[in-house]
Specification:
Layout lengths: L1 E4 L2 H7 L5 E3 L7 H11 L19 E5 L2 E2 L11 H4 L5 E5 L5
Parallel strand pairs: 1-5
Antiparallel strand pairs: 1-2, 3-4, 3-5
Length: about 100
């Protein structure tokens, strides 16, 4: 079971509280997690990654085991701690402003 932490505004949109738990086939990657999220919560399609290019939205960041994986390949296998559910895959909406 993969644990995912969504930012507050996406939890509200998906009508969920707290962490999301998903079954994801191996290998567990950013792409496979996002595919599973969008399949389970279709209202989130296009909010985390672009509809057409499937690239991460500019103001969204991905973290696993305390490391920013936002610029890693979406097909790179994630750490074992994510795969076995001991750590959560964290999606953060970045904040910008001046």
């Amino acid at each position: 079971m993969i644990r995912v932490v969504l930012p507050h505004h996406l939890r509200t949109l998906a009508h969920v509280d707290g962490e999301v738990e998903l079954e994801v086939e191996a290998p567990v990657t950013q792409r496979s997690i996002l595919d599973a999220i969008e399949a389970r919560y279709p209202m989130l399609r296009g909010t985390i990654r672009d509809h057409v290019t499937q690239l991460r939205r500019p103001m969204v960041r991905f973290f696993a085991c305390g490391e920013d994986l936002s610029h890693e390949s979406p097909d790179t296998p994630l750490p074992d701690a994510i795969t076995n559910g001991s750590e959560a895959f964290v999606i953060i909406g970045a904040i910008a402003g001046g």
